[in-house]
Amino acid sequence: MSINQEVLQALGDIGVPVSFQNYTGKANTYITFFTYLDKPEQHADDGEIITGHYVQIDVWSKTDYTDLVKAIHQKMLTAGFSKQNFYDLYEDDVKTYHKVMRFFKEVM
Q1: pTM over 0.90
Q2: Domains of the chain
Q3: What are the tens digits of pLDDT across the range 49-59?
Q4: Helix axes 3-11, 66-78, angle to 10 degrees
Q5: What is the spatial distance between Cα 97 and Cα 6, in angstroms, rounded to a whole number?
Q6: In what order do the strands lie in the sheet with 96-107?
Q7: Which pairing describes strands 18-20 and 29-44: parallel, antiparallel, or unpaired?
Q8: CA distance 83 to 9
Q9: Digit-coded pLDDT (tens) for 40-94
């Protein structure tokens, strides 16, 4: 299973649309995600044996997204990801709150 499939599976029942990189629907609250870094984490016998997948999940909302962020965090932890960092933004041009959530997962 690809890392994108793992994210989609983890967030499949979150209650808002989840889309890889770009969302084109009409919902006021939605999630996009992408991998911002894949890199070798461990080598053996001249080959990569563990890959680190660094994933960013973006929550976009016109209203308070606190409960949604908590649910995403828990679902990602349950799926084997670990938290890297989270931060809040406000996109003034589209009047939308934006939560950036970065996670990491090692895969053999």
Answers
A1: yes
A2: 3-107 (3.30.2000.30)
A3: 999 999 999 99
A4: 130
A5: 25
A6: 18-20, 29-44, 47-61, 96-107, 82-91
A7: parallel
A8: 18
A9: 999 999 899 999 999 999 999 999 999 999 999 999 999 999 999 999 999 999 9
Give the per-residue SS3 of the chain: CCHHHHHHHHHCCCCCCEEECCCCCCCCEEEEEEEEEEEEEEEECCEEEEEEEEEEEEEEECCCCHHHHHHHHHHHHHCCCEEEEEEEEEECCCCEEEEEEEEEEEEC
What is the C-alpha separation between 105 and 108, in angstroms, rounded? Answer: 10
Instruction: Answer for the pair 18, 11: CB distance below 8 angstroms, yes or no.
Output: yes
